[in-house]
Amino acid sequence: MIEDKNPQRTALENLGEFGLIKHLTQHFELNHESSLKGIGDDAAVLDFKNKKAIVSTDMLVEGVHFDLSYMPLKHLGYKSVIVNLSDIYAMNATATQVTVSIAVSNRFPLEALEEFYEGVAMACKMYNVDLVGGDTTSSAKGMIISITAIGVAEEADIVYRCDAKPNDLLVVTGDLGGAYLGLQVLDREKEVFKVNPNNQPDLEPYSYIVERQLKPEARKDIVELLEKLEVKPTSMIDISDGLSSEILHLCNQSEVGCNLFEDKIPLDPTVISASEEFKMDSTMIALSGGEDYELLFTIDQKDFDKIKGNPNLTVIGHIAPEEEGVHLITRANTKIALTAQGWNSFTS
Ligand code: ADP
Ligand code: MG
User: Fold this and answer.
1) Which residue, judged by its Cα, is nearest atom 2 of ligand 1?
2) What pLDDT sits at residue 197?
3) Cα gap 221→85, rounded to integer Å
4) Rounded Cα–Cα distance for residues 136 and 253 (Å)
5) Annotated binding-site positions for ATP
6) Pocket lining for ligand 1, CB < 6 angstroms
7) I need a surface site. Which of 96, 135, 160, 197 has the fewest CB within 10 A?
8) How many angstroms separate the CA atoms of 209 and 33, rounded?
9) Closest by Cα among 94, 219, 223 to 153
10) Arithmetic mean of pLDDT over the chain
């Protein structure tokens, strides 16, 4: 499909490695004072003065984490950066730099990489981060992407997964389940396309959830909002795998239990209608879906008034002593133990 979309195909070997790197990165500027040296030397040089540096890396493998038959390369470039920035925001830090490393097989022309870097550039601009390095190499088959995101924070502002306390409130941003259902829609259209390539899918009714899958956003705005509200969460994590596995991570690391209320889980109307269409339970999808990149955090009860009524934030439960365990209180008011049903168990 990449071949079909790019009438012009310049083979990568025509440029050579240095020519390629230069070509792909020439339009990136450095905007942060902390970026002393970016691309071009053996290593980048950063200066965070008396603040702490926050570093996170993720790897994305074609066929495992993304499918290029419905993921346009520009979106992939954007999303690859976003998923890494999300980890920085989950520490309550400001993302400042990224490095982007790619391995591609000879099936990828220069134009495909240009498209990928357009997405990278767009994310860097939107989130104000500097591209300061990376690596470029070949792979025997498919595309592999590794991104490192770097951020900065005052030591006192950093939020870990391990400091939630009994009676803290459990809060989630945005709404859940959209990205997983967007993938179901795209998967279904791919199957239809295989049978009838002339069939033009109408994705319009699903635009919200398809966008949640193809062009997710990281919650930089929430880190800024919390600062403005003068709320420092007691613990925080980003929702990459699904609400239930993230709650279990917070609880295990903080050595606490939790009660999560099914009727409080925020769902977009499109998520409710699409889950009915796919004959899936919307709560299950929110719990186990994944790739929503919302933030999940706990706050002291005394901070409740500061966040109350904010449309971006929903209180979905509260932290309990460890002995009480981690439970979902259903709409029918039954209490069931939460289990880690991450992304994998749901897709296989
Ligand atoms: P080395 O041989 O020391 O690994 P490279 O030739 O791989 O150096 O890289 C030269 C410069 O280009 C370095 O600053 C490196 O960080 C940067 N760079 C290499 N590949 C990429 C890429 N895909 N995206 C951004 N910067 C890159
Ligand atoms: Mg290198």
Assistant:
1) 42
2) 84
3) 12
4) 36
5) 117, 134-135, 161, 240
6) 21, 25, 39-42, 100-102, 131, 133-136
7) 197
8) 37
9) 94
10) 94
Residue type, 329: I
Beta-bridge partners for 135: 101
Encode pLDDT of 133-181 as tens digits. 999 999 999 999 999 999 999 999 999 999 999 999 999 999 999 999 9
Report the DSSP beta bridge partners of residue 60.
145
Chain CA centroid to CA 342, Å = 15
Contact 131, 175 (CB under 8 A): no
Residue 38: other Cβ atoms inside 10 A: 20
**Cα distance between residue 288 and residue 245, in whole Å:** 7
Helix (H) or strand (E) holding 149: strand 144-153
pLDDT in tens, 317-331: 999 999 999 999 999
How is residue 89 written in tokens?
């925001």
Structural domains in the chain plus CATH codes: 12-157 (3.30.1330.10), 169-337 (3.90.650.10)
Annotated binding site: 42, 56-58, 65, 87, 117, 134-135, 161, 238, 240-241, 291, 343
